[in-house]
Structures are given as structure tokens and as C-alpha cells.
Amino acid sequence: MKKALLFFAVALMAESCKRGDERHDALSSGQINHISVIIDDLLWNGEVGDTIRTKFASPVTGLPQEEPLFTINQYPLKLLEGFTTNTRNIIVIKTGETKFEVDSKKSGAPQNIIRISGRNIPELLEIIERRAPQIVEIMKATELREAQKRMDSALIDTRPIQEKFGIALAVPTTYKIVREGPKFIWLKREIISGNTSLIIYELPLSALQPGPDLVNNLTRIRDSIGAAYIHGTVPDSPMVTEGAYAPYIRETKVANHNAFEAKGTWELRNDFMSGPFITFAIRDPKRSRILVLEGFCYAPSKEKRDLMHELEAIIKTLNFN
Questions:
Q1: Where are the beta strands (DSSP E) in 144-247?
Q2: Over 70: is that where the pLDDT of 42 sits?
Q3: Residue 124 and residue 71: Cα distance in Å, rounded?
């Protein structure tokens, strides 16, 4: 009898572990930048649904074509306990007692479940409006960690980067170093009908300062780097910042260092190629420098949101040695 009970317990534990592994795999294999919104159709098709779409599917800054911040899949409340619980990012919205809860699991397979309820539609709208920036930051952080986790298994030897810049960076083996300068490295990944690139270079600490000239200074610096290192196949075709739209710039932190983040579009002068870029200019007072890491892509036949997301994920593995 004892042996039978022991066998049953071991079998139960094994089945539990198997289900846990399956759920972990389901979460880890989910599409990047997707969220599930669990809400009754009546709310989804009304003002509440419109607000959700405005807050979580607004166009991504810096892309040449409109692409949503997150791809939203909507499910009715009756599926709450079904397969949609294997999504990394879930928002549950319903009427009832006023509530806003964030249940985030960061270890293992990360998952965020956001629960929002209000006594009526105006209260639901008020909670969503007020909490949307917080929810977006939580979900963006989770998706960056997921992208970084997917890169961990196959990374290039980054000793050239460490020796040149004194930093550690996780770069997938799909990227190859294609050009180097005294304080410059260009890594590129070839994709179908295009490529993605990461460049790293240094500036004097005084080169970029907050103020009205920040955008112009950053544009001038980007264009000088393009003139020196990045050209098209025809004469006089350096990479330049597209003049029609000024880059979007904000202050942020990368690797616990103050930084400027810039998003915009680039083009090759006198050539046909163009695409989005994301630049992080990171202040490094210990080395009296600004370290610049920039990702950009050329993918005319593809959506670019997730390509740029991967580049941001690589940049944010930065660690100062």
C-alpha cells in the first residue's frame, strides 16, 4: 500500500512538472509585443475598447509606417481560464468593484496579469487613462527581457567590443562585425530583403548637453558618423538623418547611466535606402565620454517594430566593465 501511494505521489509530481514545463514553454514561445485583452464584447466594441486601442495600439514612435505599440488579441471573459492565460501580457477588464491589480511574475517564464474593474464605464475609462503609462512600461520591460532571453543561447565573441570600449554586450551570432574604426564598430545581420545594424562609437562628454540645440547636435553627430563610415553603393551617398522629421528625444537611463534616447528615420543621400533608427547616447563620466549605441534597419518589405525591438534589447544588455 505504501509503495502504491509513493508511486502515485511521484507520478503526480512528474505530471505537475510536465505541465509546468509546458506552460513555461508556451509563455516563452509567445509572440513578442502581443497582449491579450480579456473583456466582454459589449465593452470591447464601445468606448472602453476604443480607449484600450488608443493606449496600447498607438503608433510606435520613429517608424516610417504606422505600426502598433502592441498587437492586441481580444477574448471574452468566459475564456479567462483557457489558453489565453499562457500569454505573457494579459489585461482583464470588467465591471464590478473598483480595482486595479498588477500580478507580475519575473522569474522563470515572466507573465503580467493586469486586472481592472470599475463600477461603471466612466470609472473604467478613468482607471485605464490613469494607469496606461504604468502598464505600458511594465509590458515593454517584460518583452525586452524576453527578447534578451531568446538571444542567450548563441552569442558572438564580443572581445573586440570589450577591448575597444570597455563594455560587455550580448550580441547574437547572427550579427557580424563589418567595419571598425579607432572608436567605432559596425555590426550587421542580414535578413530576407534587408538587414539590421548596430553601431557603437564614442563622443567627448561635452558633445551632447540638454537644451534647445540637443536635436541639432545629435543630428549633426549622426550625419558625421554616416559620412565617415556608412555609405550606399553610388557616389556621395552617406547615411543621414531624414530632414523631413526631427528625431524624437527623451532623457532615460541605460545600465544605470544617464542617457538620451532618440528615435527617427535615416536615409542614404542620393540613394533609395531608408529606415528607422534608435540611438542611446549614454553619459560615462568615469571615462569622460558619451558612449553611443545605435540600432537601425533596412527592411522595405517588412514590418519594423519587432526588428527595432530586438536592437533595443541588444543595446540594453550593456554593462560597463
A1: 167-168, 176-181, 184-191, 194-204, 239-241
A2: yes
A3: 21
